[in-house]
Amino acid sequence: MARRTRRFHPAASASASARPGAAMAAHDAASGNDLAMRDWNPVSGSADADLLPDLDTLTARSRDLGRNNGLMAGGMQTLRDNIVGAVLRLSATPDYRLLGWTREKSREWGNITEAKFRSWAETVECDASRTQNLLGLTLQALGGAMLNGDALGLPLWLPRPGSRWNTRLMMVESDRLMTPVGLEHREDIRKGIEFDKWGAPVAYHVLKRHPGDAFAFGFYGMTRDAQLMEWDRIPAFTPWGRRRVIHLHDKERTGQSRGKPVVSAVMREFHMAGKYAANELQASLANSLVAAFLESDLDPASAAELFGENPREAWNASVAQTRNIRQLKGAAVIPLPAGARLSSFTPGRPNQAFEAFMLASLRHIAAGMNLPYELLLKDFSKSNYSSARAALLEAWRYFHGRRRWLSDYWLRAIYELWLEEAINAGEIEAPGFYENRYAYVRARFIFGGRGWVDPVKEAQAAALRIETGISTLEKECAEQGDDFEEVMDQRAIEMRMAAERGLNTAQPIAVALAASGQASRTDEDEGAGKTSGNGQTEETTA
């Protein structure tokens, strides 16, 4: 028996929504009768259909904000400082259970691998252009992903005289990732990325030069065609599985090929708030230049006689003579022509509603950037300790997520490329690497420490967490950007040196802890007795 199927057609859906009965929606948000919602009819497109046609405009506007808007530039720097910071270290943690190793062997293998990885990552030899180390490349990739939506790195095999390693990374501006001319009709190529039928990247089409060079350096005509309209098709992987392209972007929807700037949702508010602030500043500056108006009842003929036959020369001469004497100063006597009077100028600036309006706008912008308002503006003057602590904790949830994203899709791919070279070169022993790639590549990355709001309280809390067993020294050190093994080794060295010199290192620590505990109790006692006028206890501000 043949099975009848019903085909879906977009036109049928559109006609159905246009029927009078479609206005009777079960959800108020889908109502067609509400005057506030009647003109709101967005198109329901795919991820690429919604993003790719607008991506070039979004990227250009995001970069313009980053260049010319101080708040945007500061926000980008805040993201870089808190997500990556000034520290980037590998903590190799191979899965010893899958490899059949002991913990001790796994730790020793990790220590050796970390030391050799530092000889590559902490030098400019990891960069194809020999200008940055891995920390600099990672900060650049993060900035590109936040500002442009994408960051692209091409792993290259470049042997160089005197260099121990041959794997190097070349950063590529995401603008160069675009579909070649003449291949726009192919459905398997989306904005320069070629996919298979399952949605996996097969190859990347990269321009040999940035398309913007045509406007900056005058590459036109045949020269432009020869230099700017040439593409390289780079396979995503080699035949044996080595990655050839690292594409860092945030994939919010299924089928999304490219990323978008982090400020896309609040870009309009960012731009308008900047223009509003600039206009208020210009208006205040213009008003400050005008002190008074000179009013005269003279007829036009008499007024013209005051300036002579050549008004411009007479005006310049008058200005030159009275520049130093006719100023509004204390006890100044200003001579005026007959029939003239001086009236004061009282501008309406500053605008009293300016601060409140900007505060509301900036809070909305901060929420769109997943940053607390205090952190975006670097302003904690109106926050107490509890509020500042809550704001920073909320921010760190976002920062930890971005760190995991950066580790999984950028740093681990780079570490795997280097580790493959080190193993094949005999620098590191890893039997069965290709069969157990995940077990060997498993690692964590240590970024910059988050610091403390109250060092004494947070150090005591960290000690209490370790003592009660809900945390470890490794975790607490990693939160501050340190390796716990190096901390313990350094402590052992210092304790041994102190013992050799007859010093007692425990006594100062005990005295400091006792003093801090006594100070805390004193503060609590004083705070308990400090109340406001309504009988409620006041909270000390940070």
What's the assembly state of these chains? single chain
Strand order of the largest sheet: 4-5-6-7
- Please write the string of helix (H) and strand (E) elements: HHHEHHHEEEEEHHEEHEHHEHHHHEHHHH
Number-wise, the strands total: 11
Low-confidence segments, ≥5 residues, pLDDT <50?
1-8, 11-22, 322-326, 519-542
| Structural class by sheet pairing and helices | alpha+beta
- Shape, please? globular
Radius of gyration, CA atoms, in whole angstroms = 33 Å
Distance between the termini: 78 Å
Which percent bin holds the helix content? 40-55%
Average pLDDT across residues?
81
Strand % is 5-15%
* Count of DSSP H/I helices: 19
Q: How is the biggest beta sheet arranged?
A: 4 strands, antiparallel
